[in-house]
Amino acid sequence: MTVPTGNPLPEVPPLTMDTLLQGVWRENPTLVMMLGMCPTMAVTNSLRNALAMGLATAFVLIGSNALVSMLRKLVPGTVRIATYIVIIASFTTVVDYAIQAISLTLYGALGAFIQLIVVNCIILGRAEAYASRRPVLHSVVNAAGVGIGFTLGLVMLGGVRELLGSGSLLGVPIFGPGFQPWVIMLLPPGGFFVLGSWLLLLNWLRGRRPGASPASVPVHNHGR
Amino acid sequence: MAAESIPFIILSTLFINNFVFSMFLGLCPFLGVSGKLNTAWPMGVATTFVMWISSLSAYLLNRALVAANLEQLRLIAYIAVIAAAVQLVEMTMKKFSPTLFRALGIYLPLITTNCAVLGVALFQTTREYNFLQSMAFSLSAGAGFTLALLLMAGLRERLDLVSLPKIVQGSALSLLLAGLLSLSFMGFAGLGG
To answer: Distance (Å, rounded) from C-alpha A167 to C-alpha A56?
Structure first.
């Protein structure tokens, strides 16, 4: 039997915990792979927005990976990217209308970035590199891991930025009335600074571990 | 919103709401291709061209979709048009400048998933720009993206000459640099009100 995607079908490894955990930490899309940077920076000025964006992306990721995996033997190799994009765009449209129905304030805060989930390279990357060659269950579990990892990255950013920028978490004030908010953290430069600082911290931790070199992070690896 | 004048749109998209530094659009190629000035330059021009083509087609498409009452297909239609435009640029570049084609590598087809390109199409729709406004918007968005790319590439070429401690090498430093650049672009914030 030939596989139309043109990729040799690898031996399907058994479903392990690692299928899920790989995307959560070791290949975390935000902190290690540096993928999907635009929504990461743009919507993380509060924990609530970060969480909503993470969950919306995870939904599109899981849904489109499941569908891509189901269709993997039907889609001809030459038009596969176009097919994946259309599948992802359909799921994104669903999320877009769903968020609009659930909360208009949230919809206003996330703005165009909900529709921009389509061009999030994490999703296309997973579809091409994983779901197009694996059974449905593997793809869904892996996508869930990556989705959790992405949400985790966003929450790490959004939490710090909201804490420093408005002195609250999920809208609940933490530091009391005397706190002078560090407004720059809510503004665009804050996003770059906070993510940069997280990466510095992780690099430092990695360097302290014996036998690991701090430069082992893939630099600007755009990997598909 | 539709009453914004052309010079205001150009000034605002170039500096005040620069796509990279204050809207966070197009960060992947911004961090990926900004290593050298001589690849940053063509990448910026190619992206600007794709933005312009897709803004033009998105404008016409949107009118057709609204007329046919099919707004829910907007996103799918836009992304298909952008993918076609990128294909066009890729073929042109492969024919006329194979060296450049190889230098840009994977980032050329990835213009499709550059959110700045789709961002232009989506923003011009939500802001209800007319034809001329859309053209001004897409061209200055591209110019702003190119400007950001060039600034960053210039800085990073200089940084190659310096010896740095191990933990700041790579992405962490690029992000902090981008933060500083973004901070300086905040200085334009008062200009347009």
So the answer is: 26
Among B136, B123, B152, B124, which Cα is nearest to B43's? B152
Mean pLDDT of B87-115: 81
Give the residue from chain A lying closest to B28, CA to CA: A37
Give SS3 for B114. Answer: coil
What is the tens place of the pLDDT at every residue in A81-132? 888 888 999 999 999 999 999 988 889 888 888 888 888 888 988 888 888 8
Q: Nearest chain B Cα to A33, which residue?
A: B171
Distance CA A119, CA B96 (A): 28
- Confirm whether A74 is domain-assigned: yes
From the list B110, B114, B186, the residue facing A187 with the nearest CB is B186
Question: What separation in angstroms does the CA of B168 have from each of A30, A161, B32, B177?
Answer: 17, 21, 17, 11
Closest residue in B to A203 (Cα) is: B167
| Structural domain for A146, as ranges | 18-208
pLDDT per residue as tens digits for the range B109-130: 778 778 888 889 988 888 888 8
**Residue B136: domain span:** 12-184
Q: Please report the DSSP string for B13-38 in residue order.
A: IIIIT-TTTTT--SHHHHHHSTT-HH
The partner residue sitting opposite A203, judged by closest CB among B22, B83, B167, is B167
* Residues of chain B found within 8 Å of residue A90, distances taken between Cβ atoms: 76
Question: What global pTM score does this model have?
Answer: 0.83
- Give the count of domains, chain B: 1
Signed CA dihedral, A197, A199, A200, A204: sign only:
positive
Residue B4 in domain: no
Both tokens assigned to A215? 């430069």
User: Looking at the partner chain, which of B22, B75, B166 has a beta carbon nearest the beta carbon of A93?
Assistant: B75
Q: How far is B5 from chain A (nearest CA, A)?
A: 23
Please check whether residue B5 lies inside any domain of the structure. no
Q: How many domains does chain A have?
A: 1
Using the Cβ of B169 and the Cβ atoms of chain A, whether some distance falls under 8 Å is answered with yes
Q: In this structure, is residue A183 part of a structural domain?
A: yes
B155 Cβ under 8 Å from any chain A Cβ: no
A151 and B CB contact within 8 Å:
no
In a domain, B135, yes or no: yes
In-domain check, residue A9: no
What whole-number distance in Å separates Cα of residue B140 and Cα of residue A100? 30
From residue A214, alpha-carbon distances to A24, A204, A217, B109, B166 in Å are 20, 7, 7, 31, 7
- The answer to whether the CB of B152 falls within 8 A of the CB of B177 is yes
